[in-house]
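B., you asked whether I could sanity-check this one before it goes into the benchmark set. Here's the sequence:
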Amino acid sequence: MARVIITIRVMPEDTDVDLDNLLERIRENVPEGTDVRANEIVPIAFGLKALRINLARDESLGGTDDIEEAIGNLEGVSQVEVEIVSRIS
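And here's what the prediction gave me:
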């Protein structure tokens, strides 16, 4: 079964959001069968930073809507944007 790597950018509501804590809550709340892999904090503008996260899952689990919804519903999250979806074998 093929797997996909999904790169997402998570924008916090403001500069006061603890991104390390947010990352831990994301790890706890991603849908079953989705693994959080590499991540980094990316500066955006005016002190605002975002999380860029790589997630891995089986291709058979479908699109990214469930991931976006799970993360988007967390407190402190303003926006979730899928940047790249790549198929790996």
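One thing to flag: Strands lie at 3-12, 35-45, 48-58, 77-88. Otherwise nothing jumped out at me.
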